[in-house]
Amino acid sequence: MHSPNPLIPPIFVSDENTCCFEWNTAMEKLSGWNKEEIIGKMLVGEIFGIFCQLKGPDAMTKFMIMLHKAIGGQEIDKFPFSFSDRNGKFVQALLTANKRVNVDGQIIGAFCFLQIASPELQKTLMQRQQEKTSNFRMKELAYICREIKNPLNGIRFTNSLLEATELTENQKQFLETSAACERQMSKIIRDIDLDNIEDG
């Protein structure tokens, strides 16, 4: 496992309890953490969590699920895996994980291989992440617009009921102000063009 051959990818190995069993030279070079500092520590939450901060929402949970699937015998191929190295440098990779078996064929952990993303692949992955974020924001904005319409309709209805009653001059001014605010908010919602909103 400790061949200095540059063709050997970064590899780490898990036992059946997700503790690190192996951390090869390429992984040492990539992460900045030596094998002696890593072996025996939990991969989820300790190595990838404290030593190497994972990037992205729910990254820890997704990594834990992926690792347990591999230990359970399911092959994992090109799982997006991003973390910070010892110096805080962002590392973007694709992780492939396979079950690890003993001579009797019993699963005793998982082999994990990292494929470092080329600059082109990194750019594509970043664009996908930005698109996901943008789509989420668009859906959130559409939801907010939809939810604001109901209270505005309530204000409009209440204003129409009040207009049919006898009001003092002060009350008429309050009603006019309320109606003007309702019209302005309705116009803002109508003017939001969800198709042309640009991020940033």
UniProtKB/TrEMBL annotation:
PROSITE patterns: PAS. It comes from the Eukaryota. InterPro entries: HisK_dim/P_dom, HisK_dim/P_sf, PAS, PAS-like_dom_sf, PAS_fold. GO terms for molecular function: phosphorelay sensor kinase activity; photoreceptor activity. GO terms for biological process: regulation of DNA-templated transcription. SUPFAM superfamilies: Homodimeric domain of signal transducing histidine kinase (SSF47384), PYP-like sensor domain (PAS domain) (SSF55785). The keyword Disulfide bond does not apply. Residues 1-74 form the PAS domain. Gene3D superfamilies: 1.10.287.130, PAS domain. Homodimer. This is Putative ovule protein. The lineage of its organism: Eukaryota, Viridiplantae, Streptophyta, Embryophyta, Tracheophyta.
